[in-house]
Amino acid sequence: MMSGAEALLADAYQRYRQGDLAGAEQIARQVAAKGHEVAALSALLGMVALQSGRTAESLPHLRTALADTPDSLPLRISFAFALANTGHYDETRRVAAVADVPQLRRIIAFVDQQEGATQAAVAGYRRVLADYTGDYESWYNLGLLLSELGEIDEAVEAYRKALAINVQPAFHIALSKALAKVERHGERCESLRAATARFPADVPLCVELGLAEHAAGDFAAAEAAFRRALERDPRHIPAYVEYGMLLEALNRLDALEALVASARAAGLDAPAIGFIEAWLLKRRGRFAEALPLAEAAVGGVSAGRRAQLIGELADRMGDADRAFAAFTEMNRLSAEGPASAYARAQDFPGHVRSTITRLTADRVAAWSRAEPSPGLTAPVFIVGFPRSGTTLLDTLLMNLPELDVLEEEPIVERIEAMIDLDSTAIDTSTSRDIDAFRTTYFDLLSKIRPDRDEKRLIVDKFPMNLVRTALIGRIFPDSPIVFVERHPCDVVLSCFMARFQINRAMVQFHDIESAAKLYHLSMEAWTRTAALLPLRVHHVRYERMIADLDGEMRALLAFLDLPWRDTVLDNRTSAARRVHIATASYAQVAEPIHARASGRWRRYRRHLEPVLPILTPWVERFGYSLD
To answer: Which GO biological process entries does UniProt record here (predicted)?
Structure first.
């Protein structure tokens, strides 16, 4: 026959099993108050505290219970879980190492994950999943780790397996961020559209969809997603921030001003709202007012974005040291991210070196004779190192009705990826091969411009095609090539100061030395190609555009055999017509043409001293000066 304490304890356990945690705890404390100290009582008090979210409070009870019943696996698992979630990692390992079961292995993997032992954590989760494929939390954590390592395809697979078992908004968001790193925009948007349809009230999902639609270039859909997020939660700060950054990128400053006003009217005084207001003030030229708001925006916004804004404001206010420090911090933060690790692993500098190695006089002289068949008009290609003035130039050319200007569509890059350039595919191409390459180019173009007017001449502006001009010259020997040049020091500095979308080329701009080295490699590839191939090249110089736009554009249009139109000089009207400018120069090209950035490098000369030996030969070769 049960004693009174035993009966009470049995009743408490019954309530616990029925989910009545408060009732179970109340009875258990009555038992404890009578001086009864048994393992079952400690276990119950520990489990109730743990499941009530009072994890730290559960620890002494669970520790006592496990000491009395060390063979209880459920108790050991619960205690190890509580230890791990309160940061007692050394004790967690000791408790979990006693039994080799999937539940405890998962806890050890979690501890490895928290302590930064990424490879050990990956191995641990893989062992767990080998025994228990239905563990969606392990799939999710494995996805996070693989994404951190840059193993994006495997991360995506892990997230999809987690979602197949248990559909959660957080899993969809993690999947989206992984797909974003490899620019699988269509797949990302499709997944998020389905997720928001399933969880229409989930505001973070709406925000993530807005980011995805923005990245995919559907700005109306992005705006609609951010608006839906704010309709569901008018006080959701991230929605305001991302919507504000979209409007700023679209140069819709009046709409941005209205968004800031609506946030203020709602009583939101969070630093993040001040951050988007600072962007607005910066674009309005009110730098001194913007800087304190940018500095105060700690938390709630990306630290990299904050550093970027502080750097741009300090630059405009003439504080070169502070600006350079802020851009250094911006790049450091970006370099630490998994997207950057993934991009660096693709070794773009190595790719350019391989291109240079293949560009020898003997090899080019041995190329097979091949000419394209008469037919489609060859595009005009605009190349030049990023931040050399190519966006200003393409904005001006968009004023001409004879032209259809493509802005940074990686068509040539995709053709390059289809060809094994280390083989003799280019060397031995026949006329039929060249025709096939050209057909592929226009097939890819038709997907971007399905309704294009074929009477309009294509202008393909993609700066880093600079390193692919040998391929362009082989496929399109009849193409005019416009090379945009700018003082090497200004170009490299500007690349370092810009916050690019990460890819295998742009990741090189995270420090000034790697930026200068990529500039050197790119110019080596370009000048070697221009020396070996009979390219039709016209040079446009950024500094001449600033000083004498009329003269520079007249020379270019004569080269392209196009009639003169005064409208070609109006960058602001052209920029205003564009829904979006997909480069880091989106704000500058909407302003009147100015000389502010010309010669800016001189204010930063002290910071550029380490890379001047790399850049000086190119300064001299292109006729610039270091004075």
So the answer is: RNA processing
